[in-house]
Amino acid sequence: MGNRKDEHVDLALEQRSGITRNDFDDVRFVHHALGGVDRGSVSTAVEVAGANWPVPFYLNGMTGGSERTGAINRDLAVAARETGIAMAAGSLSAYLKDAATAPSFRVIRDENPDGFVMANVNATVSSDDAQHAVDLLEADALQIHINSVQETVMPEGDRDFAAWPGAIEAIVQRVGVPVIVKEVGFGLSSKTLARLAELGVSYADVSGRGGTDFAKIENSRRRLGDYASLVGWGQSTPEALIEADASTSPTPVLLASGGVRTPLDVLRALALGARAVGVSGHFLEVLVEEGLETLVEHIRSWQDQLAALQTMLGAPTPAALRQQELILHGALLEFCASRGID
Ligand code: FNR
Q1: 283 Cα nearest atom in ligand 1
Q2: ipTM for the complex?
Q3: Does the annotation place 63 within a ligand binding site?
Q4: 220 appears as a binding residue in the annotation
């Protein structure tokens, strides 16, 4: 298990150089030269899961379960503490199977006693185990990842998915904290979002295509690389947000992640309807390539740039970005046409 977690980190980092263009580049803001406001009137804060986050982006679920990933979690937790941003653990499945891995996750809370911390489990755990994961981290919220594409390509992955909705419903009813259901980079369709709302889920992270690709990661762990055709599967993050916005069914409050590279991508996701935006691969790369101090500076710079861009765009709050006029291009327009979205 520990070795698999280490491999995920290495393979995710290997992909980074290939992540240059994605669907966020097909989303432009109409520029209004007299549209700006005063910096002093701008707030970047958002309310998520009953808490006030100072900025609308967070460190999304990644890792834990081995010595090396425990050290990564320690650094990420210090960065979260120093900058005040929320942070999710990677899947606590390892801990639920082997309690000896607890320190590699618990470090997230030990380093950041007052921060907003999310635990993370898959949709096969019992509701009691989900609560154990929350308890280990004294977590403020619980992420449940749904990852049927990853499991399919993973040699040792699950092949039974029918019980997932029932498991999610049971966890929502059992745990004492808000639940966020998330993909891991293949997107949530509006049909899935409507189903999650029916199951009582209050937050969903669409986590779409455009950044870390787990089909590629798991395929390179297979001896024959048999599933190469699934690389690039799923809806991109902007596609998922646009489809959710056009849907007439109730949906959970939307979070977004997948392919976020810059503060401008954060603003794009907010303008497309996300309450807050998760970042994984990019921040991991900054940490591993350039170290903890640079990651802290980098996150502070994003916080600063977000406020500056909201000022320029005339959006006093992240929610006000929903009123921005957007121009969509290329593949995103094709997606809208094929899904019957104006
Ligand atoms: C992940 N991701 C992830 N998600 C999750 O819910 N549980 C997990 O254990 C992991 N593990 C994991 C490891 C590594 C090394 C990475 C890079 C990512 C998925 C992550 O939360 C996110 O959904 C995707 O990575 C898409 O976002 P980025 O990487 O494109 O910003």
Answers
A1: 31
A2: 0.99
A3: yes
A4: no
Give the pLDDT confidence of 166-191 residue by residue, as tens digits: 999 999 999 999 999 999 999 999 99
Q: Is 219 annotated as a binding residue?
A: no
Opening angle at CA 157, ends 7 and 15, nearest 5? 35
Please answer whether residues 130 and 176 qualify as being in contact, where contact means their C-beta atoms are separated by less than 8 angstroms.
no
Rounded Cα gap, residues 70 and 103, in angstroms: 7
Residues 287, 88: Cα–Cα separation, whole Å: 16
With CA atoms as reference, report the closest residue to 241 among 213, 214, 265, 216: 265
Q: What sections of 203-280 are H helices per DSSP?
A: 214-219, 237-246, 263-271
In terms of pTM, does the model score above 0.95? yes
> What is the 141 CA–ligand 1 centroid distance (Å)?
17
Q: Are 311 and 266 in contact (CB under 8 A)?
A: no
Query: Each residue of 145-168: b (16+ CB within 10 Å) or e?
Result: bbbbbbbbbbeeebeeeeebbebb
Cα–Cα dist 298/283, whole Å: 9
